[in-house]
Amino acid sequence: DVAVIDRVIANRITLARGGAALVATMRANGAWTALVSGGFEHFTRRIGAMLGFDENRANTLLAQDGRLSGTVAEPILGRQAKAEALRDIAARLGIDRDAVIAVGDGANDLDMLALAGSGVALHAKPSVAERAAIRIDHADLTALLYLQGYSKAEFVGE
User: Fold this and answer.
1) pLDDT attached to residue 88
2) Could you state, in order of their start, the residue ranges of all structural domains in the chain?
3) Which residue from 19, 21, 23 is spatially nearest to 32, judged by alpha carbons?
4) 75-107 b/e with 16+ CB inside 10 Å = b?
5) Fewest CB atoms within 10 Å of the CB: 58, 71, 84, 115?
6) Are 66 and 85 a contacting pair, CB within 8 Å?
7) What is residue 6's predicted lDDT score, i.e. its pLDDT?
8) pLDDT at position 120
């Protein structure tokens, strides 16, 4: 039943600490924010809206007559597709990739992290943390604001 997704979001999903302040501060200062996930669009659409992301990209779970079919629409958003999403968004917005910050924690994020001017491994698996240019192991998402030179007084929505 597709409605189970709403129950999971309401009862089981905990937003990452600092996420709302990160997105609000970035957007208040003219940044474009995109949630690119190897997860499912049913979740990222809702979570992206809750946090205020400009766009989200994820895999689409197929449903028929209100019931999940157990299949995912092609193409699957994996490692290559995440990197392509970064290229696409940067090109569409006329942003040099050197001005892009990408954040990830898993192997399917490595190509995207390598393409970004600032590729950040956040609470990442060891294989990702050792290959990323920047790693954050202990702080919440507001660490990404400090990384850009914001002070706590400049955070929006905290």
Assistant:
1) 98
2) 3-154
3) 23
4) eebebebbbbbbeebbeeeeeeeeebbbbbbee
5) 71
6) no
7) 86
8) 98
Residue 34: what residue type? A
Nearest alpha carbon to residue 112 among 124, 94, 27: 124
Tokens of 141: 């998402």
Strands 55-59 and 101-104: unpaired
Say if CB 56 and CB 41 are below 8 A apart: yes
- Supply the pTM of this predicted model: 0.92
Residue whose entry in the numeric block shows the structure tokens 């994820």: 58
Give the pLDDT of residue 16.
93
Structure-block tokens of residue 44: 């990222």
Selection from 17, 30, 14 nearest residue 148 by Cα: 30
- Residue 3 is predicted with a pLDDT of 87
**What's the pLDDT at 96?**
97
Q: Are 115 and 102 in contact (CB under 8 A)?
A: yes
Compute mean pLDDT per 10 residues along the chain, 158 residues long, and list them: 88 93 98 97 94 97 91 93 98 97 98 98 97 96 98 94
Q: Report helix, strand and coil shares of the chain as percent, to nearest 5.
A: 45, 20, 35
